[in-house]
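Ticket #4471: structure export looks truncated?
Reporter: QA, pipeline team
Priority: medium

Steps to reproduce: submit the single chain below to the structure queue and open the exported record.
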Amino acid sequence: MRFFLHLISCLLLLTFISCRRNTAEVTHNHLGEVHFTAQGLPEAQAYFQKGLLLLHSFEYDDSRLAFLQAQEEDPN
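Actual output as written to the record:
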């Protein structure tokens, strides 16, 4: 009986570990498209548009980072 409890515990642990979301591999390809004209360098515009898409997808932390990257690329 004890063996089966350990076995089930290990299997559940492995299941939870494999289902864990790895944020390093997250891509935002599912966000769609945005057509918003912004002035500035093309590199900054790409980050701005990514931030806008993330903002509309309620990904506030990631959108903030994208907007900050846009500011770093083009501080004007």
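Status: closed, not a bug. The export was complete when the record was re-opened. Leaving a note from the reviewer for reference: Residues 8 and 29 are 37 Å apart (CA to CA).
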